[in-house]
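#struct-pred

JT: dropping the chains for the assembly here, can someone run the whole complex?
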Amino acid sequence: MRGWTGLAWIVRADVLERTRRYSFLMTIVATLYLGYLVDNGTIGVRLGRAHPLPTSAWTGMMMALCTITFVSMVGFYVVNSAVARDRETGVGQILAATSMSSLMYVLGKQLSNFIVLSIVTCILAIGALLIQAFEGTGFALWPLVSPFLFLALPAMFLTGGLAVLFECVWFLRGVFGNILYFFLFTLLLVLPMETGYPALDVYGLKLAMDRLQADVRAAVPDYDGRFTIGADAVRYAQTTDVRWEGIPWSAADAGRRALPLVYGGALALAGGLIFDRFASARREKASRATRARPFRSRLALPLAIPRIAGRLMETAAAPWLYSRMLLAEIRLLIRGLPWWWYLGGLGLWSISLTLDVGAARSDVLPFLWLWPVLLWSSMGTREGRYRTAGVLFSAPRPLARQFMAAWGAGCVVALAAVSGLGFRLAASGDTGALLSLFAGAAFIPSLAAALGVWSRTSRTFEAVYLAIWYLGPLHHIPSIDFMGTTDAAIASGSPAAFAAIALLLFAAAIAGRRRQIRG
Amino acid sequence: MNLVISNVSKRYRSNVWGLREFSLSLTPGVMGLLGPNGAGKSTLMRILATIARPTGGTVTWDGVDIARAPDGLRSVLGYLPQDFGVYPNLTPLEFLSYVAAAKGLHAAAARSRIDELLLLVNLDGERNQRLGGFSGGMRQRVGIAQALLNDPRLLIVDEPTAGLDPEERVRFRNLLADLSGERIVILSTHIVPDVEAVASDIAIIVRGRLVAHEQPETMLKAASGKVWEWIVPGEELVSVRSRFLLSGTLRRSEGVLCRVIADERPGPDALPAPPTLEDAYLISVSRAKTEALP
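RK: done, full complex below.
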């Protein structure tokens, strides 16, 4: 009983701490925006030429499926800082010294993750209710909310479990884990569709898709079986109205949807078993082998410091001073990475030189600009994270010097990553593709800096960038392919549009940093 | 060279004040800023370091408003924040070079300055080791070095001895004493002996307001006759504590020796004692809190 009470207190404290943060407010705003995008039809569920009428069942299912797809992906980044926060604040070491078991702690964090994601899900469910009440045809509560209960909430439980497990495994804690999750998430989406194995259908998308396709096929004989969540580039000249009344949930369906709960619990259990109980923080302190020596005694060294300000001070903001600052920022960006990161980057760069230019642009370029994500993700947040803001912001011209240099370093990294491909494009005279590279090199650090400065966490950039990267450059959807991986993307004007967005983001980053500097 | 703080206020929310109509004029020397936790010391330090803007009043450096034109002050400012941090993957040499570039220092001069400062804080032997492996005290020494990089005219150090062991603390005090002279040094702390050792002036801040700005001798003079040493039986300690302000207690075989702060003799066998700066500080803070009560 004491253990369960302790668990309840962990969950309560963690949820309160998270929901009182500024970042949670941003999450709510983003959730409302997602609901708005579903409402205005920008994103949704498409079923080929079938046009489902806005019944309660359809509205609920569409919103639930969008919730699963987008909140499971982005929500991971929202919640996977529960253990990290305890590690950073030192609260973890206090908890580690109590009699609370590791399993109880991890389970508490998972439940807290689940509650936060459930709040987001509930907001979208309420959004669906409002949409149906004001814009729908008829209103029935159960068909509308049941997709959230059977599909979305179990998916959120699983996401919460994955987030806490990633935090318990040391090499999955940082940006590497964040990127890996993205691929794991896409794998979990695709796997049940490819294999047809129900036990792998953790998000319930296969279950929903099968029922929807069967019902639509019955109503629209020439239905081509197309099923997409998000944006579908294919437009149909003629559509057929379909009235969909929902899924009559059976006990078997409920049992199938209980699987993510089991998986989520198992993940938390695994996390509890391997959780180091903040031993790494203790080890870090213990391993500080560098022995402290005191200040030099006055006998050993006179403490008088020569007055040399006259020759110390810069006469003007000369370009070389900026280049010195830029070099320092580049060093700061690329320092401290594991050897395999440099090797992997070099490997990708080499491949971009050897492959056919078209293939390099289409297939390698997205990965050339995925590899340095962990470098860019520190932009705008590093000064807060390492508590150097006080020193840097009180130096002369902090915006013109340090911030510009940090942004420039991000651009240099982006350009360096694609330099091999860039030279080849220049040699082949493909000016459009070459200019796209410059647009991308300006867009990425601007996005990182703006999101970092305003959200004060690197996770926002990681989540947003990976989502854009996945849909645009990787899947070659022209309208969001800011890298210009295809001629269609360049023809659509995306790189130019993203260059303009980069300018806006840069301005937003400057405004945010100015606000930080002024306190 | 003068720093003038005129009626400076900082309001965070409608009824939450960091500072209230704070005025002070500073000339070269070491000013110790004392106050209880949450009194507004760090808020004032941040405003003076140009990384927070007052919601009322002005701060001028040599007649120039630092909120309107902060770069003039920034170029001669050395600032060690309370929550100072470092980049763990850089070495002290690289970190100090980075801050020197941010401050706009001449490269060659900065290099020799960094060498001098690394020697001064005795990190010369660790100049090429990553800061991530440094202890809290060693990082604090890097913080002290970065604050001195540009040979500042105004040196602001906020709780600088946090994380330093007693020996390092004493040495840091000596360093501060040596640094004073033709510069203004503002030392913010709640450790009275640190201030006592080096400060030529002391300002006491309570609940965002300046309650005293005096020389240490003046404060001691004002506290004279208000400090008493009184041996009481152990079982009466709770009662004494509830009736008087105690600045210290010491267990003795005949009871507990209490250091009592009171305008009048607290008991018939209490003896007057010479005040310390800590006593004087407690008297000021206690009076300020009492006067602030409705």
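JT: nice. Residues 319-517 of chain A form one domain. The two ends of chain A are 47 Å apart (CA to CA).
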